[in-house]
Structure formats: C-alpha cells, structure tokens
Give the backbone structure.
Amino acid sequence: QVQLVESGGGLVQTGGSLRLSCAASGSVIFINAMAWYRQAPGKQRELVARISRGGTPKYADSVKGRFTISRDNAKNIVYLQMNALNPEDTAVYYCNAMIGPDDYWGQGTQVTVSS
C-alpha cells in the first residue's frame, strides 16, 4: 500500500507564493514520474506539472515561468513552488505518482488565491 500526503496549501493574495509538498510512504520501491494536477470548481482535473525520475520537468502552458516542480528521490518527495499566483490558480491540487504500472493519488490540498 502506498500513501501520498500533500501539504502546503492555503490562502494567498494575488502575486503571492506557495510551496506544495507531497511525500510518498508505504510500499514504495521505485517511483517513476511524479506530477501535480489541479481541479477547480466545475472544471476537469488538469495536469499542472510533471517530473521524470531523472528530473526532467514538463509544465502546462498556464504555469510556465511561474511554477517549478522538483523532487527528492531519496526522500520520495515532490515539490511544487508556485510564484506570481493569480485567482485562476485557485483549485484543489493533487499529487500523483507512477509506481510500476499503477497510478497513486494524494487526497488533495486547497489553494485559494484572493484578488
């Protein structure tokens, strides 16, 4: 059994920053790609950023230049540094990890950006 636990969400004003963390625990042997998704009210879940085990990142166009994804393979943690936040970034942010053939998800953390 694998658990992903996110932290770091909260309320921030436009232009502010937050750093999300996601720690994997349990029967974690080898994590391939890790990613952050988000889901705003009334919208579908969308990919925000993904990072390969080797550290190659990929970003959604809407967050390029503002968000940075990174990971610590030794600790099985993935981070999302979010800068220059705006109200359109308000959503529940979910951590995702690919372990073997399976996808695992965290419970989500709320990010709210006030105008």
User: Anything to note?
Assistant: The chain has a mean pLDDT of 95. The first strand starts at residue 2 and ends at 7.
